[in-house]
Design brief:
24 helices, mainly alpha
């Protein structure tokens, strides 16, 4: 016997009626997924509290730090998120997440062995590849453990790990760094200094959590929505094929398989993107070349994947890339992420430089208040989003729009005040407001696709938060700072130029989501989906 919504050993669906009651086990699974996401962001965000030491020891600039935190991680996180999202749609999601957790934990520890910016870049790429498994698998699992009426709440609870992990990273990283440097002023075992020891200390525990994740049950895909969808009999064959559509230069093989015209268009796109990347480096300085090369690789990979998806899975392409409601939802939230990633990363280095606050104290003040603000914002925002969803399919996006606009005033206050106390209070308010946006946007993106497409939709959704928000926001703040005399306040506030773009995108999404949702199955059938 199996519980409703879980798979038996034969892999067959135990029930045709979608279960609507949420079991205690569903909440247990959600709790474990939150722990995974907390560790995800501890490993990702710890670079913030270590930034000034890394800058000094590796002779880097603020633009370099923005690149390391954002682009080096984000491009490969996005790039591998696409095939891994497809794998999450067709394979055992629990195993996929366990493997990814082990990979990114090891690569975080390896970051502690870095002796140059180039070595740290390679390690950050590894962290990005491993972490790309987490959210596609988690979003899909949550959508199969929780009914539609609670989905934004469940996704918001999961997303709270983002803010809890970000806050804990500052607290843990600051204390480890200062304790290690106090114990070993000239460097400890293996010559490691404090920031290197901090990377190792937060990376290795993930291997233990990966073993816990392996014990979770895999639910029947789509059962809770009454749209039971069997997994692929050959998931890794599809995954390998997807890699040919995403990973340069293998993308040329994938394009060639679709015919000479597809290959020619692919080469043309690569040439155009390379030209733009080189041109940006000439305009903004040759030192930014790595930023635009990495970003160009990411954009080219996404183009290659989208064109391949159109050729091989037209229904999924139409419901994601062919749906303005979906695109405007993801890009609209991407504008929220653009500002929030920049302010959350640079907050601790800014306070350390401007107010002279010790790292351990920053971990408690900025890290602790940031974690609380993010947790409160995403949970409250998720609950309000679900309440507004009851009034209409686009209701959740009003919370996302609020999360774009409300942080502006407190963010300006934080980066213009001369008081550290005021900085913490303003940052706390801004963080609550911006974090409220995530649950509604994520749940809306899931609403606009079929169950078998949820992993791919999640990977596409995170393109906005990575290639747009994470790859550009922190870098822009760091670049503006580096070119204005290390003025981080000007750098962070410069990211507000994206707010008007976000307003337009979200207003279009609000108007178009109801029609897109109501015509979901008919549009899928028209594209060839068998429902």
């Amino acid at each position: 016997m199996t519980e409703p919504g879980t798979a038996d050993n034969s892999g067959t669906a135990p029930a045709s009626q979608p279960p609507q009651e949420v079991s205690a086990y569903s909440w247990y699974v959600l709790g474990i997924l939150v722990l995974v996401y907390i560790l995800n962001f501890v490993d990702r965000q710890i670079l913030s509290i270590l930034a000034n030491d890394i800058k000094r020891d590796l002779s880097l600039t603020d633009a370099d730090l923005g690149f390391l935190y954002g682009t080096a991680f984000a491009v490969f996180y996005s790039l591998f998120g696409i095939p891994l999202g497809r794998l999450a749609d067709s394979w055992h999601r629990v195993r996929l997440m366990s493997f990814g957790l082990a990979v990114w934990s090891v690569m975080t520890a390896v970051s502690g062995l870095s002796k140059s910016g180039a070595q740290l870049t390679v390690a950050r790429i590894g962290v990005g590849v491993g972490e790309a498994t987490a959210s596609p698998a988690a979003y899909s699992l949550i959508s199969d453990y929780f009914p539609q009426r609670l989905r934004a709440t469940a996704l918001a609870i999961y997303s709270s790990g983002l803010f809890l992990g970000g806050g804990l990273s500052l607290f843990i990283g600051g204390h480890i760094l200062e304790a290690w440097n106090a114990a070993y002023p000239g460097g400890g075992p293996l010559g490691l200094v404090g920031w290197q020891a901090a990377f190792m200390a937060v990376g290795l525990p993930g291997l233990l959590l990966a073993l816990v994740v392996m014990t979770l049950r895999e639910p029947v895909r789509g059962a809770i929505d009454g749209l039971i969808t069997p997994g692929s009999p050959q998931p890794f064959k599809g995954f390998a094929a997807e890699l040919l559509n995403v990973i340069p230069p293998f993308t040329l093989i994938g394009a060639a398989r679709r015919g000479p015209s597809a290959l020619a268009l692919n080469l043309l796109a690569a040439a155009v993107i390379a030209t733009i990347a080189y041109g940006l480096s000439l305009v903004l300085g040759r030192s930014t070349l790595q930023q635009w090369v990495f970003l160009g690789v990411g954009i080219y990979a996404v183009y290659s994947w989208a064109t391949a998806l159109r050729a091989h899975d037209l229904p999924t392409f139409r419901l994601i890339w062919g749906t303005p409601a979906f695109l405007c939802t993801t890009l609209g939230y991407g504008m929220v992420a653009f500002v929030s990633y920049a302010s959350s990363y640079w907050g601790a280095p800014y306070a350390e430089r401007v107010f002279g606050i010790a790292k351990a104290d920053l971990g408690l003040t900025i890290g602790g208040t940031g974690a609380l603000a993010g947790f409160l914002g995403v949970i409250i925002g998720g609950r309000i989003a679900d309440a507004l969803f009851a009034r209409g399919p686009a209701g959740r996006l009003y919370v996302t729009l609020f999360g774009l606009l409300a942080p502006i005033a407190p963010l300006v206050g934080a980066y213009t005040t001369e008081s550290f106390t005021a900085f913490v209070i303003y940052s706390f308010i801004a963080h609550i407001m911006s974090s409220s946006a995530l649950g509604g946007a994520a749940a809306t993106s899931q609403l606009l696709v079929l169950p078998r497409m949820r992993g791919t939709a999640t990977a596409t959704f995170f393109l906005a938060t990575t290639l747009v928000g994470l790859a550009l926001g922190p870098f822009m703040a760091g670049y503006v700072s580096a070119t204005s005399g290390d003025d981080l306040a000007t750098g962070v506030l410069s990211t507000l130029v994206t707010v008007p773009i976000g307003i337009v995108l979200l207003m279009v999404a609000i108007k178009s989501v109801p029609a897109a949702q109501s015509s979901l199955e008919s549009r899928a059938r028209a594209a060839g989906e068998a429902i």
